[in-house]
Target: 2-oxoglutarate-dependent ethylene/succinate-forming enzyme
Amino acid sequence: MKLLNVPVIDISPFRKGTAQDKQEVVARLVDQACRDIGFPVISGHGVAPDLIERTRAVSRAFFDLPAQRKLKVARPAVDVTRGYTGVNEESLARSRDPEAYGSDLNESLMIGPVDPPDPAYANAPAAGKHFAPNIWPEDLPELQAVYTAYYREMGKLAEELMRIFALALGLPEHYFDDKVDRHISRLRVRNYPAQKEAPQPGQIRAGAHSDYGSLTILYAEDKPGGLQVCNANGDWVDVPIRPGCYIVNIGDLMARWSNDNWVSTLHRVVNPPAGAGAESRRQSLVFFHNPNYDAEIANLMPSQAAKYAPTTSGEHLRSLYVKTQNA
Ligand SMILES: O=C(O)CCC(=O)C(=O)O
Ligand SMILES: [Fe+2]
Model:
């Protein structure tokens, strides 16, 4: 029987427990979540609630700025994943279907690595734009310190989750450590405004897509018009929002690395009901974890024939970033 709903998993036994406790978390994660639905919700992650709250508050203040001020930190180019993207400038569904209609009803602010590695590595041709400098809003100087702290904390949690994944895939616990120690992750905070006018036909808050990288760590709000995932039966099911918990999901890169033993699940953010009012404004903190640009992504399952040619993390991501922007 496939799991058809998103499970909630306490990972604290992995973080604090014995080798046996670790295996227990791992077994439940892999069996119940990564193979079937690709979306565990996790509790016991150890991230300070105060840091989450400060990140939410400063983000809300940013999105409350007048449009011209937000545009001062506009995303500079489609292949540079930094800065501000306005409502209607992106269509996530286009990452899968170039003809997809309808741009997304959210705006976002994005940063990349806050502790770039040595310049020779960061500026090598294969690094592309993955270490492009961050663009900080001068109108909200306190944002930089908060986002920097949150980005670092997410990097640490992702490293821990990658250790759980390593054991779950039958690899040594620290197998991924040297493949994510110069990770090219992105923090993207999305604001979904309350909808004063009815959306265009087919237009939703975030079009159906799967994420691109190794894993995503999402802090979402419980508001009308939320996140849904497409389960193994092809039905859209709501993701439970538990206070203080993170929603984790596998991205395309991890599915490919696992030779498709794990699923990178289609998900979307739907519109609130008409007339839901100001209360339907929704904000989510989305951390997309991506391995080092030069990490080789090749079949991790030695007993199985490889379904894909090897690639690198950097090339896999670059090719996906440019597809969704309304250039
Ligand atoms: O806001 C959400 O709940 C999900 C956003 C999302 O799927 C994404 O940014 O990739
Ligand atoms: Fe997503």
In short: The pocket of fe (ii) ion (ligand 2) is lined by residues 209, 211, 267 (CB under 6 Å). The radius of gyration is 19 Å.
